[in-house]
Amino acid sequence: KAAAVDFRPPGGVQGLVTPRTMTSIAPSKGLSNEPGQNSCFLNSALQVLWHLDIFRRSFRQLTTHKCMEDSCIFCALKSIFAQFQFSSERVLPSDALRSALAKTFQDEQRFQLGIMDDAAECFENLLMRIHFHISAESREDICTAKHCIPHQKFAMTLFEQCVCNSCGATSDPLPFIQMVHYISTTSLCNQAVRMLECREKPTPDMFGELLRNASNMGDLRNCPSNCGEVLRIRRVLMNSPEIVSIGLVWDSDHSDLAEDVIHSLGTCLRLGDLFYRVTEERARQAELYLVGMVCYYGKHYSTFFFQTKIRKWMYFDDAHVKEVRHSSACGSTRKMRRMASAASSLHL
């Protein structure tokens, strides 16, 4: 299983101690998951998309798309977003989106009805299907359409290359786009131990540096000229995404690294620390803050997310929605540690 964590700019989290008026608070809604549906992975991805203000507001402005009728993910997402906004019900069905997702990926036998799937991969594929519906004329790997939310807001435009310090040989740069930056939890924890041994205490840039080191761990290539050197891949970020999703990949279903992973996570990510180099000045200066985390425990997904309207952390477990109160912070931390034992997804 994989994990995802979302980070975004500080605008949505800057007034943490300044409550808004009660009349401005929109109650959070849960999503149904009847026995046998196994829709918790989709519900978690859906809660992330709805609560990401940048996505929700941008998606609301889209009016035209390439419709696929009963398998149209765009239409299903528009429908449930309207229910999130206007329905008086506290629990909403995600059946229409579940059905459209299953029909869309039927040939690949992914995200099929009644079958559990991966929340991080679901989140990633929902973004790419939105690209298809609104920017089908542009290829996924080179889309520059200004109205394409996935590529304008989420996509990390990268290239990777090997450079040999011994003989000077360089490999051809390989460009690619990723919506989720995946990291091995084993590599994350091993690197955290090594880095802490070299410094007295954690520093503000440690989390980005930790992710970069963990991403490169074991990712080695032979010198392009075969001079005998073994090289680490250099990844260069060429844009400045507004939202960064980190996927934590667990090496097995039974891991004892849950506590170590939680303690290794940071709440602030300097984008310039995440890659070998970033080309945009805005990206080099960008600081993103943790706003959401999808967890997997006991073959079940649920979500923690910071709701900017009420400036509080909320916990979403299908139909059940709870505020993460200060008085229960210790219990919530224990719950997050338990739930992180299989997979989690972070969004910044």
UniProtKB/TrEMBL annotation:
Top-level division of the source organism's lineage: Eukaryota
GO MF term (any one): cysteine-type deubiquitinase activity
Keywords associated with the record: Hydrolase, Ubl conjugation pathway
GO biological process: protein deubiquitination
Pfam families, alphabetized: UCH
Signal peptide from the UniProt entry: none
Stored Gene3D superfamilies: Cysteine proteinases
Boundaries of every USP domain copy: 29-348
Family membership: Belongs to the peptidase C19 family.
PANTHER family: INACTIVE UBIQUITIN CARBOXYL-TERMINAL HYDROLASE 54 (PTHR22975:SF5), UBIQUITIN SPECIFIC PROTEINASE (PTHR22975)
Protein name per UniProt: Ubiquitin specific peptidase 54b
Organism of origin: Amphiprion ocellaris
